[in-house]
From TrEMBL:
Cross-referenced PANTHER family: ATPASE DOMAIN-CONTAINING PROTEIN (PTHR34301:SF8), DNA-BINDING PROTEIN-RELATED (PTHR34301)
Occurrences of domain AAA+ ATPase (ranges): 46-214
Top-level taxon in the UniProt lineage: Bacteria
InterPro entries: AAA+_ATPase (IPR003593), nSTAND1 (IPR049052), P-loop_NTPase (IPR027417)
Name used for this protein in its record: Cdc6-related protein, AAA superfamily ATPase
SUPFAM superfamilies: P-loop containing nucleoside triphosphate hydrolases (SSF52540)
A matching Pfam family: nSTAND1
Length: 396
């Protein structure tokens, strides 16, 4: 292929695989069929609302964005992304700014008709902003149109009153059966972490948990991405990407993108298993500085230690549904990595340091009680990086 065609196809690969941004195109959105059905059903039912929750990096925002794009044209669907400084008032001001309204403005002079002026719904939100005033505006707007409000990163505002007031708003909307649906999206292990103020709203709040994706869903991401650029992928490449991703679509998109690009560079229309190894190197080079620094702080030493091997063992250890693992799980993987039968006391201090506030800390969260401690990674995107690093350094 000539240079222009190559540049065009590389651009197409970048559109087909999206590691840095949420998916918005239904054709490129793989898996999550049950969750998608639930959300579209909620949006169609008066008095129903939804909460999408799960750990970081599992595709919550992509699900919300695709749902937004699947709604009928007759539905107005403002999408607001929270930040740490947001208040109840700023969230709803941001929501209503996205809802256009036509108002009539009278003009001076005999026989002159009023003119239509396009404004935003935020013009209706004046004075002190409360759950009742927000519901009043929504009820007014819903006289002419159905509304689905999507509020993303709901876990971020530091003002704890935000959660209480949003819960109050949903309660009032549900009680009054107004044709406005609120969909909250946030990082949490349980619903109570995000909305615990009203047990009574749970009958109106459909809980959409986002677990990590299955290997088959991850494979489908790769297949769809490759098909979108009129290429093929060997099953061994697809399987390797799914396994390395550990249920996180970010890494599937990242490795899929790099592997497909490597095939293009070689002038092939088939992505081979060998492209996966090259993709690992590319992914390591593209890792964020914060991930690199955390890994370096946790494992650096001027003498021979087990920190690098223990951290790798943690990354590949068998985990429960909440992503946690125990010291016995680490012991087995450490034996496989080092070829030596280390007992738990030999690496207990390593686990303690990884979960402390010290120089090597902030990597793991320690949960449970003494002698029965379990651990989980604070950043779910870190374990695949650790495994890729270990793979490149031939530790696994």
């Amino acid at each position: 292929m000539d240079e222009d065609e190559y540049v065009e196809r590389v651009g197409a690969v970048g559109r087909a695989f999206s590691p840095a941004a949420p998916i918005t195109d239904r054709d490129l959105f793989a898996g999550r069929k049950a969750q998608l059905r639930t959300l579209t059903s909620v949006a169609a039912q008066r008095g129903q609302h939804a909460l999408i929750y799960g750990e970081r990096g599992v595709g919550k925002t992509s699900l919300a964005r695709v749902t937004q794009n699947l709604l009928p044209d007759s539905v107005v669907a403002p999408y607001y992304v929270c930040n740490s400084e947001d208040s109840f008032k700023s969230i709803w001001a941001g929501v209503f700014e996205q809802i256009p309204i036509l108002t009539q403005e009278s003009r001076m002079g005999f026989g002159r008709s009023a003119r239509h002026v396009l404004q935003s719904g935020s013009e209706l939100l004046s004075g002190r902003v409360t759950p009742h005033s927000v519901v009043r505006v929504l009820a007014l707007l819903c006289e002419s149109v159905s509304i689905v409000v999507l509020i993303d990163e709901f876990d971020r505002p530091k003002d704890q009153r935000v959660r209480t007031l949003i819960a109050d708003t949903i309660k009032i909307l549900a009680d009054r059966s107004i044709a406005a649906t609120v969909v909250l999206v946030g990082v949490a292990d349980t619903v109570d972490e995000l909305v615990s103020e009203h047990a009574s709203i749970q009958r109106s709040l459909v809980q959409v948990q986002m677990p990590r994706m299955t290997d088959e869903e991850l494979r489908e991401i790769v297949r769809r991405g490759v098909r979108a650029v009129s290429m093929e992928a060997q099953p061994k490449f697809v399987d390797a990407v799914a396994e390395m991703s550990q249920g996180l679509p970010h890494y599937t998109h990242l490795l899929g993108q790099y592997g497909t690009t490597r095939a293009l560079e070689a002038g092939r229309s088939v992505v081979k298993r060998a492209d996966f190894e090259d993709a690992l190197t590319d992914a390591l080079d593209a890792a964020s500085q914060s991930v690199r620094e955390r890994y370096h702080r946790a494992t650096q030493s001027n003498r021979e230690t087990l920190y690098k091997e223990v951290l790798l063992a943690c990354a590949v250890a068998e985990k429960d549904d909440l992503g946690s693992f125990g010291a016995p799980d680490v012991r087995e993987k450490l034996r496989q990595i080092t070829g030596k039968a280390y007992d738990i006391p030999a690496f207990a201090v390593h686990l303690k340091n990884f979960s402390s506030e010290g120089a090597r800390g902030g990597i793991l969260q320690r949960i449970g009680t003494s002698r029965r401690f379990r651990y989980r990674f604070r950043d779910p995107l870190l374990p695949p990086y650790i495994v890729i690093k270990g793979r490149i350094e031939k530790l696994v």
